[in-house]
Amino acid sequence: MTDGLVIPELDAGPFLLRPFRAGDLPLLAEAAADPYIPVISSVPVPYSEADGLAFVQRQHDRAREGVGYSLAIVDRAEDRAVGQIGLWVTELAEGRAATGYWIAPSGRGRGAAGHALAAVARFALTDLAIPRVHLHVEPWNTASVRTAERAGFRREGLLRSWMELGGTRRDMLLFARLAADEPSPAAP
Ligand SMILES: CC(C)(COP(=O)(O)OP(=O)(O)OC[C@H]1O[C@@H](n2cnc3c(N)ncnc32)[C@H](O)[C@@H]1OP(=O)(O)O)[C@@H](O)C(=O)NCCC(=O)NCCS
């Protein structure tokens, strides 16, 4: 029996990362109407308020079950959730974790995912001392490639026909950021 993971609050500059709550349902309704977000996430389609609440509950369940941390990305200026980022730790025994993110259309264009990804990478590599965090991005997804690069992730290669999404086999670019690449803390 485990007590599970505690979802943190993380500073991401103009954004705050925090656990999901019922007040985030407008974000989920918007995300459900996006053509790609439901393909890469468990955002429910068709959307209903009950499905939205179940999504919020699932994010907390994943921490309780030790699967990982699912965080809402909140725009501090507007005090509203604009997206989601996850840190999945089921391969922790091998010294690696996976991440992924989405931003609803109305929150895009301000680098929210890049700020969130940099904050989650710091949390994973420094606070949790995980050696490696990786991320899969479809090759056409320039906005996500830019996000990964801005957050200090390095492109490692193309995984051909890596997985099925939305009924189609997809190639994936593999990106990673390593604890070994982090600048060492200044000597006292
Ligand atoms: C990928 C995503 C999270 C980025 O959202 P965001 O943080 O608002 O990103 P921004 O719009 O601020 O753009 C980030 C960078 O990509 C660039 N960019 C954005 N859209 C682009 C496009 N269509 N073509 C080329 N470049 C683009 C921006 O110019 C910016 O570049 P910069 O860092 O050099 O300034 C968002 O588009 C999204 O949620 N898409 C659907 C879900 C998804 O793809 N998730 C990632 C799966 S790996």
TrEMBL record:
Recorded coiled-coil stretches: none
UniProt superkingdom: Bacteria
One Gene Ontology cellular component annotation held by this UniProt entry: cytoplasm
Domain N-acetyltransferase, residue spans: 15-177
Molecular function via GO: protein N-terminal-serine acetyltransferase activity; protein-N-terminal-alanine acetyltransferase activity
Gene3D superfamilies: 3.40.630.30
Pfam families documented for this protein: Acetyltransf_3
Protein name (database record): N-acetyltransferase
Species of the source: Catellatospora citrea
